[in-house]
Fold this sequence. Notes:
By secondary structure, this protein is mainly α. The chain contains eleven helices and no strands. Helices cover 75% and strands 0% of the residues. The radius of gyration is 21 Å and the shape is flat.
Amino acid sequence: MTTLARDQDLVVQTPPRTRRRSLAGYLVMPAILALVCLGMYLYVSSQELDSIEARSLNAASLATATWEHIQLTVVSTVLTLIIAVPLGILLTRPFTRRFRPYIITLLTLGQAVPTIAVLVLLAVAFLFLGFQAAVVGLVLYAFIPVLLNTIVGLEQVDESVLEAGRGMGISKFGVLRRLELPLSVPIILAGVRTALVINVGTATLTTYINAGGLGDIIVAGLSTNRVLIQIIGAALTAVLALLIDYLAGIAEDFLRPKGL
């Protein structure tokens, strides 16, 4: 698709061109997820829980862990966008193309470091734990998909369209704002969806640096050898990942420029 993709041998998430779904199509995923949650509730209610299971699986504990997980995901993703999208725009400008491959290679190698190692390194090197350290680790891990998709999205815009804009007297910033960014929105949003799903899954590891989230439920099950707690924690994480991906898909449908 682009010189970047060929040079770096990277796979970038590129959305297919699809029509906007019908109302019924939008309701399928929420219905499935609601049935899954109902099934988990009925199953847990039918079991005889010991004191450890009852404490971990009560509604208040699950709601608190889920809300913490959502906060970790949303905050880290917003910060990722604030950093990655402007940097992606900067790296597509002519004056940065000489050293861009080296920056991309360095960032990609950094993403190969296991997430738990990044979190532990932050905790040891900077001596801070909890929500802030978790957000930093999640941003570092989800940064690459958004950055790459921003670069590829901007570079796939037809050069003749840009030349036409310049020929009409539009400034360089105007071409970027009115042509390049709108035409690259579908690919950038695909990167955002990837980052969201990555953050939901990775946020479970932040329990090891006292950041909360659904990882607390899973680790509680592991440490006490309670399989039911482990299954519920993992299932809720999967449901949350699918729900956030579904909501991001709706945003992608409505933010996608008409005709793309």
